[in-house]
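Re-run with default settings, no changes from the original entry. Doing this only to confirm the output is reproducible before filing.
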Amino acid sequence: MSAITFTEGILTSVRPCRNRPPAIHPGQAKRAGTARGVLIAAILVGLVLLLPLTGADAASPGSGGAHLAVHFIDVGQGDSILVQAPSGKTMLVDGGPVDASDRLIAYLKAQKVSRIDVLVATHPHADHIGGLIEVLRTFVVGLVVDSGKVHTTATYERFLTLIDQKNIRFRLGRAGDTIDLGPGLDVRILHPSEPLPENMNDCSVVIRLQYGKVGFLLTGDAETEAENAILRSGADVHATVLKVAHHGSRTSSSPWFLKAVKPVVAVIPVGAGNPYGHPHRITLLNLADYMDRVYRADLDGDVVVTTDGTTFQVDAARSRP
């Protein structure tokens, strides 16, 4: 595994991979509503849950070497991101396709995950939620955050049914909401807002994490329309690490959006030899304006970014020539 360390975005050294944050301890949370119930209410009344998902204030990054680890898991042509907060809480954003379920479960167990405090389904396409079905069956999940975009597929139906059967708290993720992963880590939803766009990808739940000086922007499959809406909202999108939207498609990562984000590191979740031509050459050229190295799941495997809030280290499972 290759490892690169940065200080405030500047390469400082290359060193071996360090240990990951400690394991998560299970807990219980009260039910907030059924998956179908929340979606039906949103559809019939035209309303969504606009209250913050949490009310915790963010504090300064913890002392004593507390680290945030963000794992961009190689699930082929799909997305799955594990966030291990300095507090010990976990968030899983998407789960890749169904055929990546075994690989995803094995990865989570290897990281000593026993509970997922927050599970986010950015949007209901199968390459993002397929693997979440087995995650729901295997792990204790405290809260599910969903885009609320209805999709009439068997995969999405199984996803919602399992949430109801396991009595898991369910919320719609909307711009302005915050997610509590413990002190020191600020987690905010930047998109979507009502009314939801027609384009399924543009309904993606977009999340920004900030830990000290280091920020992460997790974009789902958001395309140009969603990028423009986020910029018009005036939200702070600046981030050290960008999860490139829609597997590097040319429909995302517009030059004006990248100019606002100003990423130092980019990670593209993309499957080897995919039939879509991802990542697109234009997207790679746009990213090259900001960095010399773009990490790709098809070339680098799992990519893990670990930070103490000041410096950050990038670990790739495979080394390129």
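Residues 8-32, 43-59 have pLDDT under 50 and may be disordered. DSSP finds nine helices and 16 strands in the chain.
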